[in-house]
Amino acid sequence: MRWQKIALVVTIMHTHKALLLTTFIFAITLIVTASSTLDWDLSHSLVAPGSTFGEFFNRFGELPVFFALLLSTVLLFGSRNRQVAWRNIFSHIFALPFMALFAWAIFFVPVRYIHEFNPSGIPHETLRLTQILGMALLFAAIVAAYRLPPELCRKYRRPALLIISLIALEIVLINLLKIAWGRPRMRSIDSIEQFHYWYQIAGPAPSDEFKSFPSGHTANGFMVIALALLIPAQKTSLIRGFTLFALLWGICVALSRVVLGAHFLSDVATGGYIALCLYFSLRGLARQPVIAEGAN
């Protein structure tokens, strides 16, 4: 019990340090971009239309977060109470549609960004293939949900619920800010006279081309870090390794959005900060049951 309490204190201290460091870097970024034209100048210097790097992370950068949603839903469904009929029925009614949605999104999101500027021109064959692949992944997820031992799923129920909550909260918050800010995207303006600094609120946004701040793509890219909650707390080296991978993935997604002219640096910095801030603030909740069980 004593060592578990010490582990909890260390986790909290580590979380606070990570959050403070993230906040410090973010604050410096916003201050610098607000006091000069660096946001405009540096963002434009990075633009490279047709970049292979940019296109790859633009199309596939959000996929891990949809895998996280699907995996978390599978774990929650697998941990359902099979003894109480109404709970079992409710679990099926609630979980299966979400599993279908996330399985479909995993294949549709890349297709959407391939045809980003002509969504109505997506070939029917491509959409049909997307549906087939999505259904195949859904079937695999349902099979996994039925075959996984319930006791194993219950061990991951709290982290899985927290992952879904974090991603949902991030998506809602990002989109509310997008609508409220109404900032034009870099690709939509021709001169610095049309440029809006990040602190200039011009909403509500009339269309997607005025939803530049903050970057939802970047927030979803960084939110893959939430999958670290599924790694056992004692595997510290694995957690650190995955955290580093998640941060590098998020940075690559952020740069891809600037490279393709979809966002300014301040947009991607804010999107990344929101995701990391939510994660570092709430990740301790996933470890609490382990401490409580040891105390009994």
Would you mind describing this structure in some detail?
Mean pLDDT is 85; it is low at 1-13 and 289-296. The protein is 71% helix and 0% strand. α4 (63-78) packs antiparallel against α5. It has 296 residues and is mainly alpha-helical. The protein has helices at residues 2-34, 38-46, 52-60, 63-78, 85-114, 124-147, 150-155, 157-181, 216-222, 236-259, 265-282, 288-295.
Give the terminus-to-terminus CA distance. Answer: 9 Å
Which structural class best describes the helix and strand composition?
A: mainly alpha
What are the low-pLDDT stretches, counting only 5+ consecutive residues below 50? 1-13, 289-296
Q: Summarize the main sheet.
A: none
Helical segment count: 12
Average pLDDT: 85
Residue share in helix: over 70%
